[in-house]
Write a structure and sequence with these properties.
about 110 residues, mainly beta, 7-stranded mixed β-sheet, 4-stranded antiparallel β-sheet, about 50% strand, globular
Length: about 110
């Protein structure tokens, strides 16, 4: 109960794309409580994207229109499509539901 699992990371070249998926294994689910974060080497973990209480998409400033977040209440999932990836996007991407963190999925952007 309370497990969060991410998938979909990998190695891509600059300008490439990846799709990350997160699923929560909980009894009651509220999409508003699920968000994506990332942590680059030597940096603190930071918010990336999520869904607001009114269903709107919420993004960190550095996303700049490159990423798209979408959620599914029935499947208890939150997906994150990463387009236009750059080397500075490299890091471990984590999903969080409530107080539960996933194990993270590595995204590496390199030529």
């Amino acid at each position: 109960q309370g497990q969060v699992v991410e998938s979909g990371g990998g190695l891509v070249q600059p300008g490439g794309s990846l799709r990350l998926s997160c699923r929560a294994f909980v009894s009651a689910f509220d999409l508003y409580l699920m968000n994506w974060y990332r942590q680059a080497p030597g940096h603190q973990r930071e918010f990336v994207a999520g869904i607001g209480r009114n269903g709107n998409q919420v993004y960190a400033n550095f996303v700049k229109g490159r990423f798209t977040v979408s959620g599914d209440n029935e499947r208890k999932t939150l997906d994150l499509v990463l387009d236009g990836l750059q080397p500075e996007d490299t890091g471990v991407y984590y999903c969080k539901y409530g107080t539960h963190w996933g194990q993270g999925t590595q995204v590496t952007v390199s030529a």
